[in-house]
Amino acid sequence: xxxxxxxxxxxxxxxxxxxxxxxxxxxxxxxxxxxxxxxxxxxxxxxxxxxxxxxxxxxxxxxxxxxxxxxxxxxxxxxxxxxxxxxxxxxxxxxxxxxxxxxxxxxxxxxxxxxxxxxxxxxxxxxxxxxxxxxxxxxxxxxxxxxxxxxxxxxxxxxxxxxx
Length: 164
Known about the structure:
Order of helices and strands: HHHEHHEEEEH
Mean pLDDT: 78
Oligomer: single chain
Strand content: 15-25%
Largest sheet: 5 strands, mixed
Helix content: 40-55%
């Protein structure tokens, strides 16, 4: 047997022996419960449970735009939404982080057509709240989606009537 092979075998055996000797100490160390400093209850960290789609649409403040089509760029819809007076009045903001969003606007293009479909999703409850379909021939897709979104969201966001 060559000497380098014997040396390699000796190193492997030594490593296995060392691992076996240290294993009980590691197991004892890992058996202690982990203590988190300044841990808050999970209820305070989790988003408030929304019972109805109407409540979600009424209380949402942050929007994320997701595209499933190479023919659509989220930045153009961001601009179209931010130019809408209603979006400004309602205090809606657009985030580039999906995890921050209260609503997700998902846009896709139907295959072999000029039709785009959009859905407004609740990312916390994983449900579709609104949806619409537009064609790209009647103007820019982004302006049409922004207009349709604002029109469909308005009944949920309208200011309550003043009591006299």
